[in-house]
Amino acid sequence: MVKKDKKIEEVVEEIDTEKTVGSDIWNEIKDLELDLFGLPGQTIKKNCTRVKGLEFVFPNSVHLKIKSSAVFPALCEKMLQIGKGKKYEVVEQNGHIVIKLTDQYVLENKIGK
């Protein structure tokens, strides 16, 4: 069994050489607090793991793996709050949670062009 060092994982995660819309979304949301389990300090980063590489196939999105099913409704609520219901769309797809920019937001802001 291989032990993973959390500090090494955090450093590797911070070194994101590929600049994508998905990495921009992740950097914007990872430190946001979730209203979860009645505990303070529950952030998206603590309760979700980013699945890297899929944003090259699915642009304008970030794919997450959640640690508990209770995270999904809290994550949806937080995305509605920060995007005012117009910036982000949250869906469950193939065992991942996908947070993507809405088509309207992409067109209005000319993202990815």
Could you characterize the architecture of this molecule?
The chain has 113 residues and is α+β, with helices and mostly antiparallel strands. The chain contains 5 helices and 4 strands. It has a 4-stranded antiparallel β-sheet with strand order 1-2-4-3. The longest helix is centred in the last third of the chain and has 13 residues, at 71-83. It is globular and about 40 Å long. The relative contact order is 0.15.
**Rg calc:** 14 Å
Shape: globular
Order of helices and strands: HHHEEHEEH
Which segments are poorly predicted (pLDDT under 50) over 5 or more consecutive residues?
none
Mean pLDDT: 81
Number-wise, the strands total 4
Count of individual helical segments: 5
| Beta strand % | 15-25%
Distance between the termini: 45 Å
The amount of helix comes to 25-40%
Describe the strand arrangement of the main beta sheet, using strand numbers: 1-2-4-3
Largest sheet: 4 strands, antiparallel
Q: Structural class, from helix and strand content?
A: alpha+beta
Keywords:
113 residues; alpha+beta; four-stranded antiparallel β-sheet; 5 helices; 4 strands; globular
